[in-house]
Each structure stands twice: as C-alpha cells, then as structure tokens.
Design goal:
Number of helices: 9
Bound molecules: NADP nicotinamide-adenine-dinucleotide phosphate
Number of strands: 11
Structural class: alpha/beta
Helix content: 40-55%
Strand content: 15-25%
Radius of gyration: 19 Å
CATH architecture of one domain: 3-Layer(aba) Sandwich
Largest sheet: 7 strands, parallel
CATH superfamily of one domain: NAD(P)-binding Rossmann-like Domain
C-alpha cells in the first residue's frame, strides 16, 4: 500500500531533493510549503523544481499554528529539513529550527504517525554552545520524549555551501574564514536525500552522512578555481577578526549574530561524517560551471 510522507522544508535545498527522492521511491508526497509556486522553480545550486513530484501540496506556515489544521490528516510518515540557513524572516533559530519543528513533532504524535525523520547536524556534541545546534538538539530531545519511532540524520556540510565557493571563484577571489585547514566531507543534496529515504526505512536511531571525499576548506576553494581554469586567489579572514565580528553583529542583531557565529565556527572545526555520498565535488563544480 502506498504510504504518504509529509515533507516539511520542501522548498529548501535538501527538501527539494527529498520531495523528488521520496516520490521516486514510491511514496505519496505531501509537500508542506508556504509558497506553492516555489515548488515549480529550481532552487539554489542545482536543487530541482519539484512540482511534478509533489502528489499533494499543503500550504501552511510552520511558525503559524493556525495555518496547520489538517496537516497530518492521512499522513503516515513525516520528514523535516526545516531550518534557517539564510536569515530572511528575522526569526530566531529557537523560533524556527526548534519550535516550528517541535510543533510538527507534537502534531505527528497526536496523529499517531508511524515514523519521523529529522535532519540535525553532524558533530553537535562539540558545538552545543551554538544557538543553531541547541535548537536542533531540542527537537532531537523532543522526539526522544515523544515515543514516536524516529531517525535523526546528521549531515556534514552541503554542496549548496560549496556552490558559494564557486561563485566567489567566478568573481575572481575566494574568502575563507580562518586559514582553511579544517577538514570536512560535504555531501550533495541528491545523495543526502537518498540517505533520508533510507532513514525512513531504517531502524537506526541516528545516521551520519558525509560525502565521498574529505578535504580542507582551502582545497575546496582551490578546486573551484581549478574547475574554472583560473589561478587560485584566496583571502583569509582571520579568526580573531571574525570572532570580534560575531560579538559586534550579535550586539546589533541577535539573529544575524547567531547565524554568523555558526559560519565562523564552521571555519574552525573539522566536520567529517561517515562517507555515504557518491557525487564528487569536482563533478558538482563542473556541472555548475557548465550550467552557466
Ligand atoms: N547547509 C549545511 O551545510 C547543513 C549541514 C547540516 C545540517 N543542515 C541543516 O539541514 C536543514 C536543511 O538545510 P537546507 O540547506 O535545505 O536549508 P534551506 O535551503 O534554507 O531550506 C530550509 C527550509 O526551511 C524553511 N523555513 C526556513 N525558515 C522558515 C520560516 N520562518 N517559516 C517556514 N519555513 C521556513 C524554508 O522554507 P522557505 O523555502 O519557504 O523559506 C525551507 O523549506 C537545516 O535545518 C540545516 O540547519 C545544513
């Protein structure tokens, strides 16, 4: 029997790939979105248009409970990749990454759904002081308390963030937060979406998900220049300066400060998750370069 999966975050980078992957793996997809038209548009950095893969569309806004009546009717499974990756709404990580997802957990529990797959972050224990991590991990705790069967997917960095490197290389200069010696293995959204569908069918409590290659931030930037056939021009933004920037921006605007602190921390720490993705960064950059 075809089962219906609610995909929350369906207009985001990972969410678009997830809508497509769940549909192609035989699920009936109900896409939750606050703007139906955006399902039909390509997302940033190769995320595909997905209107044709969304079997049902529910228009609602997770931060506004009054818009969610009936959201879980007929839903068997829930997937959520809702979170703030670029600040657009002036809302905090606690309001979106935590409370909006927690609302979905509560609704899923009340509706008696079979399973919830939630996307948090790799290496959360080491960076729990960050607001974004605290918010994600409160959802993880809420799922544990809910009694709902669930799996937490913990990805390293996304290729969408690597696309930013190629954009900088195109403009002639890449900026790195710190020396760029920290190591990570970013993953393509399409590969990660397959992991998320597998997670729905798995009994594992947590699944770490990284790409096939581990490289430093600097090597990733150099690769972007190489693919474009340009000599690498890289400027290091010193960590001491960036940390000062975090304090200044945080004093002016808490939400931007929290996001900036996350970006600066990502420039300092390693993030190497179990290697499950197959798409190489070079092939991804080559695809982006050819698209232009
Ligand atoms: N980027 C990384 O390297 C990375 C690594 C590990 C984990 N993650 C986590 O993975 C998740 C997905 O990342 P992504 O790159 O796919 O993010 P994304 O492209 O920014 O998509 C986020 C989704 O959340 C929704 N959303 C954000 N603010 C909202 C609000 N105020 N009200 C309603 N919906 C809202 C967006 O809806 P709209 O399209 O309508 O704005 C979108 O569907 C995030 O939780 C992120 O923290 C990211």
């Amino acid at each position: 029997m075809t089962r219906t999966v609610l995909v929350a975050g369906s207009t985001g980078y990972l969410g678009k790939y997830a809508v497509r992957a769940f549909h192609q793996r035989g699920y009936r997809v109900r896409a939750l979105t606050r703007d139906e038209a955006r399902l039909g548009e390509p997302g940033p950095f190769t995320a595909p248009p997905v209107a044709e893969f969304a079997d049902e569309v529910f228009v609602g806004e997770v931060t506004k409970p009054e818009t969610l009546d009936g959201l879980m009717d007929g839903v068997d499974l829930v997937f959520s990749s809702i979170g703030i990756s670029r600040q657009r709404d002036g809302l905090s990580f606690d309001e979106v990454d935590h409370r909006a997802n927690r609302r979905l957990v509560d609704l899923a529990r009340q509706a008696g759904v079979e399973k919830f797959v939630y996307v948090s972050l790799w290496g959360a224990d080491e960076i729990r002081h960050l607001e974004i991590v605290r918010a994600h991990e409160k959802v993880v705790a809420a799922l544990a308390e809910s009694g709902l069967p669930h799996t937490i997917v913990r990805p390293s960095g996304y290729f969408s963030d690597m696309g930013v490197l190629l954009d900088m290389a195109r403009r002639g200069r890449a900026f790195l937060v710190g020396e760029g010696t920290n190591r990570f293995n970013p993953i393509h959204g399409a590969d990660l979406a397959e992991v998320c569908v597998d997670a729905m069918e798995s009994s594992a409590r947590e699944i770490g998900a990284g790409g096939p290659e581990t490289l430093t931030q600097r090597e990733a930037a150099e690769l972007a220049f190489d693919v474009l056939g340009k000599p690498p021009r890289i400027t290091v933004l010193p960590l001491w300066l960036m940390r000062g920037g975090v304090r200044l921006i945080g004093a002016l605007n808490q939400q931007f400060g929290d996001l900036f602190e996350f970006i600066v921390t990502a420039g300092e720490i390693d993030g190497v998750a179990p290697s499950v993705g197959r798409t190489t960064l070079r092939s991804y950059f080559e695809g982006l370069a050819a698209d232009r």
